[in-house]
Automatic annotation (TrEMBL):
It comes from Holotrichia oblita. This is Uncharacterized protein.
């Protein structure tokens, strides 16, 4: 840690430096990511519920039935943003991750687990990012 210059009584400038190293921050980042993932891991074996059904299984943007450009024109639920019934929740990056996951695992039994794994990894990364940004 560097300290500011100290001027002595005779006008000479000296610098005080400490030789201590700052502690590594990787253990804290690992802890935050682990706690974030642990909060969601118990739901990996479940099925789609509540808002997962319209947001994933019925959303034409996620199912790749709409052109890719519609992802940036539609809300989270797949409704055009200009539509009066739109929820106005604009999350194109979330929809793109859902779409890529859907395209990787295709339409198969147990697809909910793959989506939950993807979401859990994203939560861990996001919580870690928020923790590092808040420092």
């Amino acid at each position: 840690m560097k300290r500011r210059n100290i001027t002595s009584s005779n006008g000479a400038s000296t610098t005080n430096e400490t030789s201590k190293k700052s502690p590594s921050s990787w253990p804290m980042y690992s802890l935050v990511s682990t706690v974030a993932v642990a909060c969601y891991i118990n739901g990996l074996n479940g099925d789609f519920v509540h808002d997962d059904i319209p947001a994933i299984t019925l959303n034409k943007d996620v199912l790749a039935l709409n052109p890719l450009g519609h992802t940036f024109k539609n809300d989270f639920w797949g409704t055009p943003m200009a539509d009066i019934s739109s929820h106005k929740s604009y999350r194109p990056l979330t929809i793109l991750t859902f779409r890529s996951t859907w395209m990787i695992v295709a339409i198969m039994e147990g697809v909910a687990k793959e989506f939950r794994c993807d979401k859990t990894a994203n939560y861990g990364a996001c919580f870690n990012r928020e923790f590092t940004d808040s420092k």
